[in-house]
Write a structure and sequence with these properties.
Number of helices of chain B: 9
Number of strands of chain A: 0
Oligomer: heterodimer
Largest sheet of chain A: none
Structural class of chain B: alpha/beta
Structural class of chain A: mainly alpha
Helix content of chain B: 25-40%
Order of helices and strands of chain A: HHHHHHHHHH
Order of helices and strands of chain B: EEEHEEHEHHHEHEHEEHH
Largest interface: A-B, 20 and 27 residues
Distance between the termini of chain B: 20 Å
Strand order of the largest sheet of chain B: 6-7-8-3-9-10
Strand content of chain B: 15-25%
Helix content of chain A: over 70%
Chain lengths: 219, 256
């Protein structure tokens, strides 16, 4: 078998651009899905049946659909239903944000729910408002439980962004596949792609491990 | 004993409960409970687990809302809206069975949390007040510690200081020593006794019969969501009028 690793170097520009898009997609998705998750979690925890029902429906829908299906749906169906045309990048971003918001919402809800009711009651018994009790007593404690889970979601998301390549978003996976298709260098390109994802993902995974150790078991 | 002979009986009661009723689904937690708490009085609520003592305490500061009857504080029924109820809660301190200290805050920050957040006190004033209270409960040297590094008895004393920092008119104690190791119960009871001697109005849900006998001015015996007997400790412990009071105390090994 003759291998030509030179092909990887020749297409370094496309790979670097793809890697950039992958990082950008991860960052933007989280930038949307963190406030999105907070909003959904607060809706879910609210006393309004309508808000909590809407949130539950959203979360259960997008948490239980395969992400690749959501990506296709956002690409083919959403424009028809909404009448709006988005770029492939924006479409991919929307699909990822819907999925990750649903996950983050559960993370936030579980984090908040894991703080004993007695903590809120202690705050209320001092005369604090429900809002003050949440902000000063519940959220700071929930945060240290939420952070490690959020970090794990981040690492999954970083890898899952590759799914948007199916709608021709020029991320690392898409660009690498394009080079492969043009050069027929399957083994080299898939290996290079794996190496790049791993090199970028490994430090993130280590960071998550560190967060788990730091915040995982406290109190 | 005539009502006028009861401590604080010459002034208007701080708390009045009239026909209080509380349901949890089908379960009747409180049924037609009527009693009062006078100013400066220590009232101990005793009775078997699940008899409604803690529920009545939680209905006092509306952590639990009643389903019928009336709770009056300082002559006024508890307001139904949370906004006004908050003002009332600021005048009642509460101490919980599981302490419920804020684990992410230091001991000092736990004690200043009420004055800073609720009373908007200046930080140096809040700190001075907190230090004085920590000194009072014998924990001045633990101000910088975190709750996790304290013993149960120390944590509960901090919790008492935290409640006192709001300068409440009434203190509510919900089984304050039930979660403690036997060797640290005494230090908490001593703080409570000191508080009682200073004239603090206190409602104490407790299984510590010796404390109730020695410190309470009035004892209320609960069974199955209702009051079966109430009176001064001398009556309850030495000459109960109701057989079931005698049975309950007998089960605890109380022999007078």
């Amino acid at each position: 078998m003759n291998l030509d690793w030179n092909v990887v170097w020749q297409h370094r520009g496309a790979l670097a651009e793809g890697a950039e898009v992958t990082v950008l997609l991860t960052l933007l998705t989280m930038a949307i899905a963190i406030p999105g998750g907070v909003l959904l979690a607060l809706m879910r925890l609210s006393k309004s049946r309508l808000l909590s029902g809407a949130s539950a429906a959203f979360v259960e829908l997008f948490r239980n659909l395969p992400l690749i299906l959501v990506v296709y749906w956002a690409y083919y169906v959403m424009p028809v239903l909404s009448g709006l045309e988005f770029s492939a990048f924006t479409t991919g971003l929307i699909a990822l944000s819907l999925n990750v918001s649903a996950y983050n919402s559960e993370t936030f809800r579980a984090g908040i729910a894991s703080i004993r009711q007695g903590q809120t009651e202690a705050a209320l018994s001092l005369g604090m408002s429900q809002f003050q009790a949440m902000r000063q007593i519940v959220f700071p404690q929930a945060a240290s439980r939420i952070l490690p889970v959020l970090a794990s979601t981040w690492v999954s998301l970083f890898k899952d962004t590759s799914l948007v390549s199916v709608i021709a978003v020029g991320d690392l996976a898409y660009n690498a596949m394009q080079v492969r298709a043009q050069t027929y260098r399957v083994l080299e390109m898939l290996t290079a792609m794996a190496a790049i994802y791993w090199v970028m993902g490994y430090p993130q995974a280590k960071l998550v491990d560190w967060l788990h150790r730091k915040y995982g078991i406290s109190e | 004993m005539t009502p006028s002979g009861r401590k604080g009986g010459d002034t208007a009661p701080v708390l009045t409960y009239r026909n209080v009723r509380k349901l949890f689904g089908q379960f009747v937690a409180l049924n037609d409970v009527s009693m009062q708490v006078n100013r400066g009085e220590v009232v101990c609520l005793i009775g078997p687990s699940g008899s409604g003592k803690s529920t009545l305490l939680r209905c006092t500061n509306a952590l639990t809302r009643i389903d019928g009857g009336e709770v009056r504080f300082d002559g006024e029924p508890l307001p139904p809206d949370e906004q006004r109820m908050r003002k009332i809660r600021q005048r009642m301190g509460m101490v919980f069975q599981n302490f419920e200290l804020f684990p992410h805050k230091t001991v000092l920050a736990n004690v200043t949390s009420g004055p800073l957040t609720v009373l908007r006190m200046r930080p140096e004033d809040a700190r001075r007040r907190a230090e004085a209270l920590l000194d009072k409960v014998g924990l001045a040297d633990k101000a910088a510690a975190y709750p996790a590094n304290l013993s149960g008895g120390q944590q509960q004393r901090v919790a008492i200081a935290r409640a006192l920092a709001m300068e409440p008119e009434v203190m509510l104690f919900d089984e304050p020593t039930s979660a403690l190791d036997p060797e640290t119960i005494g230090e908490v009871l001593n703080v409570m006794k000191k508080l009682a001697e200073e004239g603090m109005t206190m409602i104490v849900v407790t299984h510590e019969m010796t404390f109730a006998r020695r410190v309470a001015h009035w004892v209320v015996v609960f069974e199955r969501g209702g009051i079966i007997e109430q009176g001064p400790p001398a009556q309850i412990f030495d000459a109960p009028q109701v057989d079931r009071t005698r049975d309950f105390l007998g089960h605890l090994g109380w022999s007078g």
